[in-house]
Design a protein that fits this description.
LOR; Tubby-like_C; LOR_sf; mainly beta
Length: 193
């Protein structure tokens, strides 16, 4: 995964000699947007969803392209306060389980933000490893290698990496979002962008 000025390309990782990377997704960020809106597209350029946050908040919301800002998001990303390490909760509705809410727990393993694990129901679902420790300090954007458990939706990878890149240089204050608890009205208020 490459990162330049808020834009990303997510590609396959060659595992055999002579194998070539192929693009899976692209992310186009609006740099001057107060909500830090990002458009996620497939390899052909068709939009899949948008990811943005409240102008003054830290919780991120993924919505289908063209959906109103007050519509039900398809995923909610809640960074948590955790000094010097990544700690993010990603809330998604599992279509295979009648829309039951699932929580992916993104947990950094070191203060250099080199290695991060993602857990689903206590099981390791994804391993994220930054390729170089010092590359981000010498003018080169970070690149990650991500291993994903079979059956996990690959669209979750760019969502998580996008937020990790955004919080690379700071420890954000924590999101107050705690999942689908409360009434529908309470959830809609917390989801307004």
């Amino acid at each position: 995964m490459s990162w330049t000025r808020g834009d990303f390309t997510i590609s396959t990782f060659p595992t055999e000699p002579g194998e070539v990377e192929s693009s899976l997704f692209t992310i186009d960020g609006e740099l001057m947007s107060l909500s830090h809106r990002r458009r996620f597209c497939d390899a052909s350029g068709l939009p899949l969803f948008d990811l943005c946050r409240n102008k003054t908040g830290v919780t991120w919301f993924a919505r289908l392209p063209g959906a109103p800002d007050n519509s039900e998001p398809i995923a909610i990303v809640a960074p948590r306060f955790y000094p010097l390490k990544d700690k993010i909760d990603v809330y998604v509705r599992n279509a295979a389980a009648n829309g039951e809410e699932e929580v992916l727990q993104v947990r950094g393993l070191d203060v250099w933000k080199i290695k991060t694990h993602v857990y689903l129901n206590g099981n390791l679902a994804m391993v994220i490893e930054r390729k170089t420790k010092l590359g981000i300090y010498v003018g080169k954007g970070p690149e990650w290698i991500v291993q994903v458990a079979q059956g996990l939706d690959l669209l979750l990878v760019p969502v998580i990496i996008s937020i990790m890149a955004y919080t690379m240089y700071d420890t954000t204050s924590g999101s107050s979002y705690t999942g689908g608890h409360g009434t529908e009205t309470d959830r809609r208020k917390s989801m307004h962008v």
